[in-house]
Amino acid sequence: MTASIRRLARWLGPWTKPTDAPTDVVRTEGAAQSRHDGGATRIEHLTFRPRDRAIRGSVLLVPGLHYLGPRDPRFERFARILAHAGYFVLAPILPSYLRLSVVPSVLDELETGLDALLDHPLRPRDQRPGMMSISFGSMPALRLAAKRGDDLANVLIFGGFADFRRTLRFALRGEGPRAHDPLNAPAVVTNLLPFLGEDDGLRDERDRELLRDAMMAYCTRTWGRPEMKVDRAYVPVAEAIAADLPEPVRALFLRACRVEPGIEPIIEAALVRAGEHFDWIDPRPHLGTLRVPVTLVHGVTDDVIPFEESQIMRDALPLETGARLLLTGLYGHTHVDGVGQGPREIADELVSMGRILRAMSSLSG
Prior knowledge:
This protein has helices at residues 3-12, 73-84, 95-98, 105-119, 138-147, 164-173, 185-191, 205-222, 235-242, 249-256, 263-274, 308-316, 343-361, and strands at 25-33, 42-50, 57-62, 87-92, 130-134, 155-158, 294-299, 324-328. The chain is α/β, with parallel strands linked by helices. An eight-stranded mixed beta sheet has the order 1-2-4-3-5-6-7-8, sandwiched between helices. The longest helix has 19 residues, at 343-361.
């Protein structure tokens, strides 16, 4: 077992508290001007590197939809663990994803992050960087890999998706008996705001902004707090925010936060009105030219994106990528789930963990 794998295993295994992180890491902040929109956008980023050992490679670490972006403590902890293992890590702060919006500008935002990593003086020049994405970061990551594959050594996609509409539906209501995160419905509604109208309780653009701001306030007060998922603990939070909203925005907000029933038919009608609007998000039409080695990892207990989405992506990737899929019961969407109860189950999960750690340890090359 290499030193980098040992360091990854020390911090990513179920034997370590999920709040603990390596301290021998240097974190800095920076920014780069986009080369892809006429220089109109300035993309900030965080970088992480080992303090007392040589940098052995570099990684572009792509965040998912989150109002904190890479500053989410769980994401930052993971970036620190990669740096502790010897990587120079650059995590771009994607303005679109801070707003919980999947919009085309995220493609240029991420490409600016790759340019910043390639230009960074601390990146080892004798090897290409790897790229790892988490959750909704998979779409821009795969699009970037298809466009700029010659600049990358390999790609690791954790908990990604192919079908945006199916992923929204799963985040909203789950699938059969499978658990889903009840706190994510406002993020679904946020991405469908252009297709909600007066019949839904939104009279004009002002109402849309009120609803958007209220849903963001709800997410900032509930996300990252597992206790909010238990026994509808999120209800008082939503009701407190709703108290300042006018009717009928208040009624729609309470549905969007699952305090009141009725958001599912509203979302289904909005998806119909959206028509082909979201087709651009599907990465599959862009994968034909992708030649970079790709590893897909997905937790079978993921309660935000169903693991079948990674199976769909694996089947769509060209043979030249050597795409492989690693399913695990150890890692959920943003947390360690545990290794199960029986000896066979424990053994299988530890084997799976070893494969995932090896993939992480060989990201750059």
